[in-house]
Design brief:
Layout: H1 7-41, E1 49-53, H2 59-65, H3 69-74, E2 85-86, E3 89-94, E4 99-104, E5 111-114, E6 118-121, E7 127-130, E8 141-144, H4 159-172, E9 179-185, E10 190-195, E11 200-204, H5 211-222, E12 229-234, E13 241-244
Parallel strand pairs: 1-4, 5-8, 8-9, 11-12
Antiparallel strand pairs: 2-3, 3-4, 5-6, 6-7, 9-10, 10-11, 12-13
Protein name: POTRA domain-containing protein
Transmembrane segments: 21-40
Organism: Candidatus Harrisonbacteria bacterium RIFCSPHIGHO2_12_FULL_48_16
Length: 245
């Protein structure tokens, strides 16, 4: 037997159904609003104190943390914004004491990087703190041709370029050369080194340096060909060019 509803009955049914949907949607929205409020304001999730070990400032990690959208929403002082590790910084959370401890687990600095100003950087290319504009062989200093302002906690150059720079610097240590000046031109993707006796080398940052480059450098340094050249150019992959004086 079929049951038929009048138009008035159908209207009442759909009216009650809409009310139920609105109530459910309102309850769900209220749940999320209250949940967000609790996450943002719950005392045990708020950081009252930062303890630092082998760091000068929590700002060193701030730039990396705030790259995450959740951290930007929750804020720098919320425990949920912080993972257990950031770059080479180990993170320990004391919810009841409301203390966040940041411990640098690796060597604090890799080099001094100078653009408008000089900063110590780590081996991930993150600016750590202001550094002196020094000269000499004891401290690795890299001059950046760009007219830019560096910021603590931010990378000074893209990761691939820095990785290639580190490989070049480490490779040069296997040669008789003793570079005393390093320059990077990010626009041309070039890295230049000047030896203590005026030797000039140009590398590309677009590809990893081959181990053969440094073997060849050692050879031409010892036989005097490098010293008699204006510069050695390694900007084309698998090719070496010596510019005559």
């Amino acid at each position: 037997m079929e049951i038929f509803f009048s138009k008035a009955q159908r209207d009442r049914y759909y009216h009650r159904l809409r009310i139920k949907i609105y109530l459910i949607a309102g309850a769900v929205s209220l749940f999320f609003v209250l949940g967000a409020w609790l996450v943002l304001n719950f005392p045990l999730l708020r950081i009252n104190k930062f303890e630092l070990v082998n760091l000068q400032s929590a700002e060193e990690a701030r730039g990396i943390i705030l790259n995450n959208w959740l951290a930007r929403f929750l804020g720098f002082n919320n425990f949920l914004s912080w993972p257990s590790q950031v770059s080479d910084i180990e993170i320990k959370k004391d919810y009841f004491g409301r203390i966040l401890t940041l411990t640098r687990t690796e060597k604090p600095s890799f080099a001094i990087w100078c653009a408008r100003e000089c900063y110590w950087i780590d081996n991930a290319g993150i600016a750590l703190e202001p550094a002196p504009d020094t000269e000499g062989l004891s401290i690795l200093k890299i001059s950046d041709s760009r007219d830019i302002l560096l910021a603590i906690g931010k990378p000074v150059i893209n990761g691939q370029s820095l990785s290639n720079i580190i490989k070049i610097v480490e490779g040069l240590k296997t040669t008789p050369l003793r570079p005393e000046k390093f320059e990077v031109n990010e626009e041309d993707r070039e890295f230049r080194a000047t030896g203590s006796r005026g030797e000039k080398l140009i590398f590309s940052l677009q590809f990893e340096p081959s181990a053969k480059i440094f073997s060849y450098l050692a050879e031409i340094t010892q036989n005097g060909r490098l010293k008699s050249s204006a510069y050695a150019d390694f900007t084309v992959e698998n090719r070496i060019y010596l510019k005559p004086r």
